[in-house]
Amino acid sequence: MKGLKTMNMNDCGYADLYEIILDVIEPKLSQTGLDRNTIKPDTGLMDILDSFGILETIIEIEERAGVSADLAQMDFATAMTVSGLAKEIIRINPRE
Amino acid sequence: MKDPVVRFMENVRLNPNHPAVVQDTGSVSYGEIGSLTARIAATISDICEKPRVLVYLPKGADAYAAMFATLMAGGYYSPINIDAPVHRHVEVLHQFCPDVIVSTKKLVLDLPIADIESEFVDIDNLSSDELGEPLAAHELAYVIFTSGSTGQPKGVMIPRSGLSHYTEWAVNNMCVSPEDRWSQHPNIAFDLSVLDIYGALCGGATLYPLTSKKDKLLPADFIKRHQLTIWNSVPSVVDLMIKARQVTKENFASLRLLTFCGEPLYPRHLDAIFCANDRVLVHNTYGPTEATVSCTLIRLTASNYKDVCGGNVALGQPIPGMEVMLMGGSSDEGELVILGEQLALGYWQNGSETAKAFISISVEGVDRRAYRTGDWVTKRDSEYYFAGRIDSQIKIRGNRVELDEIDSTILKIGYGNSCTVFVNNQLHSFIQTKRLPEFLEFKERLSRHLPEYEIPAHIHVIESFPVNSNDKIDRLQLGELID
Fold it and tell me: Do B457 and A33 touch (CB under 8 A)?
């Protein structure tokens, strides 16, 4: 991705991942009237994105953060908020 | 031709311990669902003859039992998608005016039924009386309400004979057996679910409704977990699986048949499916709700599918008892017109719409009843290919959407005249107003009236609409305004 920071899990903590998720979600919100500042840690992904948007978000997070974000491996109930997704990605990608 | 209730009850008698439905709350055997069906049927047949029933239940065994029970009691039903906006439920409720609402105490609280003379049947509190034998059938089987261009849902009246014809074809054609484990993906108010419910339960198979958000987002995971043998959905769901990287050998290993309807199937879907499982059979089917789910079929395998792929995959040939013809074009293209036993009887209490869509045409000197689909189709090497719509109806994830319905609703809730277009798989509404409405409020107000898939992703302000030579709003020009 041009001009975007790319990391891997060894140098990517919760705060970094949270920011990456916001970076990824932000352009998808631009035409909905929502913006980055209205997104809270407990904002539900399914409230702001459709199924395709969620999957696109996850694929972009994988590319940017250099991590695996396989939804099938995650605790789905936790992963469906912005902070929960960051936590679940960290859980399924233990640091080396 | 065997009636679906007779087929279902035969399975109840022959295989009472076999699982009929496996859902999040557990497994329901044929004996159990048969007993539930007979108890609901006893209750509603005591209320009135030929009951008109609103099925207001979530996807699952209770809802399926309520449908079979209504038919068993000699009535007809309308199924409601409980996840749709309540306003939509109210419109259906007022149009359909049911004699009976089958629901639960908790769910029915959402329905403003004070001014409706309907009896409420609580599925959790039925008497133990069972109806022994099916009562004489009503002419209708069900009424499914779809998007209507005036903003009012349109009820498609499907005859019992049409449902019997379709069920018989499905069970035989798909070689359904008790060994089959069959998905139930579409909501129960979307007629694609009719194939799942009647195909599986009349064929003695086990039905697996997808109800959790996770299963809807990761359907291929669901296939693997339950080792499903039959999958039925709109093709968009395959796009979702592809995007989630779930169309894999492991996930698709148990499938023997995938069947699609509701929107065009594309070569990319088949490439992915046959790459994951080259022994699977794919049925591409075509049909509007007005022809009882589907009326054409093409069987696709890993070795033949490339021969019938144009821009999209061929629609197939009419199934026995149904015919298709082209109208208003040439021998190679035209509006697809359907004739045959599965045609709807018309639209619920809507004579003018019925007269527009259901016409009489002369075939070899004989006047025949036919349905104008509004689908423009091309014909190459005897195969039909979907080419577009002749009106402003579109499909979003298989759901029929009248763009005019969205605009009627925007006007009704006070935002002014609008024109909605569908570009790059997204809805854009152009609103004739001075100031852009606050999007979240707009979205929230619209979502009280329209289902989620009909909410525009984008709104734009426009001073005046471009018009064509007939002085009609030119949707094509509007579409070109979008980057």
Answer: no
